[in-house]
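Data deposition worksheet. Section B asks for the primary sequence of the deposited chain exactly as it was used as input, without tags or linkers unless they were present during the calculation. Section C holds the resulting structure in token form. Section D is free text for depositor observations; keep each observation to a single sentence. Incomplete worksheets are returned to the depositor.
Section A, Depositor: J.P.
Section B:
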Amino acid sequence: MRTLVTRLRHRPRALAVPAAFSAVGLLLSAFVAAPPSSAADAGCQVDYTVDQWSGGYTAAIKVTNLGPAITGWRLTWTYGGDQQVTSAWNATVSQSGDAVTATDAGWNGGLATGGSADFGVQGTYQSSNPTPTDFAVNGVSCGGGTTPTDPGTPTSPPPTTPPPSGDCGGAVLCSGFEDQSGATPSGAWRFAAPDCQGTGTVTVDNSVAHSGGKSIRVDGKGGYCNHAFVATTADLSSVGPLYIRMWVRHTTALPTGHVAFVSMPDSSQGGKALRIGGQNGALQWNREIDDATLPAQSPAGVAQSMPLPTGSWQCLRFMIDTSDGDLDTWLGDQQVPGLHADGVPTADIDQQWLSRTTAPRPTGLRLGWESYGGGDDTLWFDDVAVGSSPVGC
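Section C:
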């Protein structure tokens, strides 16, 4: 897949933008640049990064405040093609015709001078997906020279926060795969194909790594029962609560069909797997014994999850409470609302998941790929940590 990265800088005199782009990884940075003698005129900057495939896309959007501090933001833009936003995360997004409005989620509304907030959207298109160029924050164009005003006070922050940053600390398992000496996983890691094996492969990669010089590469193949994983030999049955941190990189957007790239044998399910993967283009948990998903696979449920960005290293963190069954998930430092279960029923999120009351008890960790109906992907894993306390990125 070819990747084209384009960065366009917008000053008071706008630059022309082509009507359509077909490449994946399109980056737009639109910002106001005030002259040195009038720095107070600076207003906003917007980074708009697209992962695109046939008929669909995700956009990671970063809003940076270049003026005085504000306590809430509203970002608007206009699509020039036939894009339709289907879901969003870390912001409330609405669309009327070609016009799109995104407002902060409350907890991420306060922006100091130079402060920024990140959110994302997922959508569809039929004929074209040109990048928008008319971003405005709180009614002020990012191509103009006026400071955004404050639309109001944000609501209270979410009840949970991501684990603190840091290295492996006292983790039971801490591996950057630097001890691997050949192309085949060995030592504390081994190849595994739970249930059945197809044409997928697992190798030690000396050319792509998040840190150091090595990682685990998985060439995952589509089709039912095509499993390829690298599994730790460590016994995790006594670790609880269970905190997992990994860096993962992959090449193809999560498909509509069900896939998994983390599989944990679970003694509470008689050895069947507790899985992390994707469905309908977004991250999800899946329980093998009853095929329950978190979030529920309704449009409202999927909208509370996030896609897994392609072409870059992503820090994924998970928490499994082995005593009461609570779950949590972070993509970087952002908690994924739809991948949070605390025992309190939430419509379109955890109705399936809470149908089983037995807390999970994972005994191992497998990283790789399994597909249930189609979808190839190439993935890399690095800097994996497992412990009984939070492990940061």
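Section D:
The first strand starts at residue 26 and ends at 31.
The chain has a mean pLDDT of 82.
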